[in-house]
């Protein structure tokens, strides 16, 4: 089986400084890959490279064999919560429908299919009772679920999640973990950044440790290997120096 | 009372003033929703001031004043968009540089024109009582187009306002939508110059939308309320101006601000009484315990 997402030798510079260097990554349908690393390791930058939002200084990204800017219909994106204007006067259904705004055509009213897709996504995210609630009145966990629902409404094959577990309540963590596992079982590919090792070990089928470049890649048991973790988090040299 | 209400309608110049002011209020309300929700108030201010040199040039060469103002306003907003790409300078700094420059340039140009002070003051403070029949039709046509553009583009505009990054990832033309919105704001400002003038136009754009935001959590309701508040506020302001022989533009702005103050104080969930109640309730609860 060929991989859905191919990241080959990707480097990205932000303001002249290398943020990601020579990163390689593959992701197959049905996989749930955790992208782990310390703050500033380039996790979000790598996601943005996969979305085609930052220019690559080297390497290529393909989704289903085509460049990301032509594969947008295959990709769902869940950004960090602060990217969203929560003070906007809109309810959950409206926020989820906004994910279905298409580039061409600009029909004013959402079609019946779009409404059905949004309803289904709202239910998957466990927000069915709150659909008419303004987004400004939601808790952190509920907001995270709105962003997941918005991405799911496009019925993506590849779901990119940026720190979906940061600062959410326990019921939301459990709901999202279940949901992600079910999506993977349904042959969707999921790539999620996190610095929550426990959440990654619980959820992911595979993990990649990133510290500007890919340091290690393997099953979730990788997270139990302290040497790998120290390398990924840039602490190996510090540890050696301390030992010497 | 009825006589008071009907009297001004018998004067043709008042009929035209009512029409232009109400149309302007309605259109500004609709466009203002995005100005308020996107935090574009300062850009609005910049565009309205930067229309000034264009209007003066058009006056000097006897061209169309509105067209001159629109071109100058658009040029400035494009310059702002481009120069603020430099990350060392924040957008509001760039806006500050350009709009004061444009206004200064306008003053220099105006001072080369004879009899400029009358025209200058009509530009600065509006001349709604002096509009001709063709101005009413221009305002109506222009306004209809602007409202249509905003309504037609509302879905992508909402998507971009909610989350630029995800909108870009979804392939929406974010920069083009931004520029379109700036162009609509510019055009709205230029068409409002006649009613309230350059200095006060921001009030028509911001105040009705801000009042409407206090009253609702739904975009469509907010749009509807903002245009209603803008339209009726402009109409009521003109009445006050007529009844007491006061400056028309100033009266419109004062009435709108009164409406805003009323909604700020009395809004059902976000107004003053509800906030006070929320503040005292925990105190009462702790006393009871």
Automatic annotation (TrEMBL), chain B:
Keywords carried by this UniProt record: Membrane, Transmembrane, Transmembrane helix, Transport
Gene3D superfamilies linked: ABC transporter involved in vitamin B12 uptake, BtuC
Membrane topology: Multi-pass membrane protein
Subcellular compartments: Cell membrane; Membrane
InterPro entries: ABC_BtuC-like (IPR037294), ABC_TroCD (IPR001626), Anch_rpt-typ_ABC_trnsprt_perm (IPR022392)
Organism: Streptomyces antnestii
One of the protein's GO biological processes: response to zinc ion
Domain of life of the source: Bacteria
Pfam families hit by this protein: ABC-3 (PF00950)
Transmembrane stretches, start-end: 17-37, 57-82, 94-116, 136-158, 219-240, 246-267
Protein name: Anchored repeat-type ABC transporter permease subunit
Keyword Kinase tagged: no
Keyword Glycoprotein: no
GO cellular component: ATP-binding cassette (ABC) transporter complex
Family under the similarity heading: Belongs to the ABC-3 integral membrane protein family.
CDD domains with a match to the protein in the record: TM_ABC_iron-siderophores_like (cd06550)
NCBIfam families tied to this protein: anch_rpt_perm (TIGR03770)
């Amino acid at each position: 089986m060929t991989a859905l997402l191919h990241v080959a030798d990707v480097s990205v510079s932000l303001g002249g400084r290398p943020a990601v260097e020579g990163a390689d990554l593959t992701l197959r349908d049905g996989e749930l890959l955790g992208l782990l690393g310390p703050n500033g390791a380039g996790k979000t930058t790598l996601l943005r490279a996969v979305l085609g939002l930052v220019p690559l200084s080297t390497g290529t990204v393909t989704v289903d064999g085509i460049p990301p800017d032509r594969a947008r219909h295959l990709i769902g994106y869940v950004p960090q919560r602060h990217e969203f204007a929560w003070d906007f006067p809109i309810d959950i259904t409206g926020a989820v429908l906004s994910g279905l705004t298409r580039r061409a055509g600009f029909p004013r009213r959402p079609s019946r299919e779009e409404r059905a897709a949004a309803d289904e996504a709202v239910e998957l995210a466990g927000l069915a009772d709150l659909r008419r609630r303004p987004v400004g009145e939601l808790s952190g966990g509920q907001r995270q679920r709105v962003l997941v629902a918005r991405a799911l409404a496009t019925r993506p094959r590849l779901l990119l999640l940026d720190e979906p577990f940061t600062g959410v309540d326990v019921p939301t963590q459990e709901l999202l973990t279940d949901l992600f596992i079910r999506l993977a079982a349904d042959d969707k590919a999921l790539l999620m950044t996190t610095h929550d090792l426990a959440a990654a070990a619980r959820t992911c089928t595979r993990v990649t440790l990133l510290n500007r470049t890919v340091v290690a890649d393997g099953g979730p048991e990788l997270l139990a290997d302290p040497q790998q973790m120290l390398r990924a988090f840039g602490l190996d040299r510090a540890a050696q120096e301390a030992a010497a | 009372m009825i006589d008071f209400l009907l009297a001004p309608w018998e004067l043709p110049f008042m009929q035209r003033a009512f029409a232009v002011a109400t149309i302007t209020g309605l259109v500004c309300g609709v466009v203002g929703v995005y100005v308020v929700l996107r935090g574009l108030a300062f850009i609005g201010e910049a565009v309205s001031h930067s229309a000034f040199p264009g209007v003066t040039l058009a006056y000097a060469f006897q061209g169309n004043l509105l067209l001159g103002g629109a071109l100058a306003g658009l040029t400035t907003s494009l310059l702002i968009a481009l120069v603020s790409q430099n990350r060392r300078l924040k957008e509001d700094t760039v806006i500050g540089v350009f709009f004061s420059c444009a206004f200064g340039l306008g003053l220099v140009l105006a001072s080369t024109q004879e009899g400029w002070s009358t025209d200058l003051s009509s530009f600065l403070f509006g001349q709604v009582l002096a509009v001709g029949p063709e101005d009413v039709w221009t305002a109506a046509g222009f306004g209809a187009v602007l409202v249509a553009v905003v309504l037609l583009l509302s879905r992508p505009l909402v998507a971009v306002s909610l989350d630029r990054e995800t909108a870009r990832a979804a392939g929406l033309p974010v920069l083009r939508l931004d520029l379109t919105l700036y162009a609509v704001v510019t055009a709205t400002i230029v068409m409002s110059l006649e009613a309230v003038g350059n200095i006060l136009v921001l009030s028509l754009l911001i105040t009705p939308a801000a009042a409407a935001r206090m009253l609702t959590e739904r975009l469509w309701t907010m749009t509807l309320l903002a245009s209603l508040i803008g339209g009726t506020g402009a109409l009521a302001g003109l009445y006050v101006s007529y009844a007491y022989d006061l400056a028309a533009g100033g009266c419109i702005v004062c009435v709108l601000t009164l409406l805003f103050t009323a909604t700020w104080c009395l809004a059902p969930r976000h107004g003053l009484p509800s906030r006070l109640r929320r503040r005292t309730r925990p105190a009462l609860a702790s006393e009871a315990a």
